[in-house]
Amino acid sequence: MKKLILTTVLIFVFLSNLYPQSGWQIQTPPASQWYVTVYFINENTGWIANHDDLLKTTNKGVNWIVLSNNFAMDVSDIQFMNELTGYVVGSTAAIRKTTNGGLNWTHASCPECNTSDDFMQIQFLDENTGYAIGDWRIFKSTNAGLNWEPLDISSGVFRGQFFNLLTGWFAGQGRFTKTTNGGVNWVQNIFFTNSFTTDLFFVNLNTGWIVSYSGEIFKTTNGGDNWSLQYKDSTIRFNDIVFTTNNTGWAIAENGISGNNGIVLKTTNAGLNWFSQQVPGTGYFEIFMLNSNEGWLAGNYLLHTTDGGGSVGIKKIMSEIPSAFSLEQNFPNPFNPTTKIRFAVPPCHSGAGRNPIKLTVFDILGKEVATLVNESLQPGIYEVSFNAEGISSGIYFYRLHTNNYMETKRMVLIK
Question: For the segment 249-272, what is each residue's pLDDT rounded down to a tens digit?
Answer without folding.
Answer: 999 998 865 556 788 999 888 898
